[in-house]
Amino acid sequence: MISNAGRNTWTRPIDGPIQFPIHQVDLYKNSRLQMAYTTKNSFEVIDRNAKPVQPFSSKLNNPCRLLFLTMKTHETIGLF
């Protein structure tokens, strides 16, 4: 991650190229964004300190190439 000042704040090893743009989400509705992305072998959600957010981060049993990644929350229908 690169800060607003252009400094590298952290790095995180990943198991391959990121397949889609990284989505920023606020899963806990606390104004702290998490980042969601996919590789051929995993679906990852990490916090701003590069820590995996469980249970959302997972390794895929069978490598695949996703056609798209869409993030949707259910706040408009009151599920959270």
Brief overview, please?
With 80 residues, the protein is mostly beta strands. It is 0% helix and 19% strand.
Fold blueprint:
Blueprint (H helix, E strand, L loop, with lengths): L22 E3 L8 E5 L3 E5 L11 E2 L21
Antiparallel strand pairs: 1-2, 2-3, 3-4
Commentary on this structure:
With 80 residues, the protein is mainly beta. The chain has a domain at 18-64. The protein contains no helices and four strands. The protein has strands spanning 23-25, 34-38, 42-46, 58-59. A four-stranded antiparallel beta sheet has the order 1-2-3-4, with no helix packed on it. It is globular and about 40 Å long. The N and C termini lie far apart (29 Å). The mean pLDDT is 79.
Mean pLDDT: 79
Distance from first to last alpha carbon: 29 Å
- Please trace the helix and strand order, writing H or E for each element: EEEE
Counted by DSSP, the helix tally is 0
Taking the sheet with the most strands, its summary is:
4 strands, antiparallel
Overall SS class: mainly beta
Helicity range? under 10%
Q: Could you tell me the number of beta strands? A: 4
Poorly predicted runs are: none
Shape: globular
Rg result = 14 Å
Strand order of the largest sheet: 1-2-3-4
The portion of residues forming beta strands comes to 15-25%
Descriptive key words:
single chain; 80 residues; mainly beta; four-stranded antiparallel sheet; 0% helix; globular
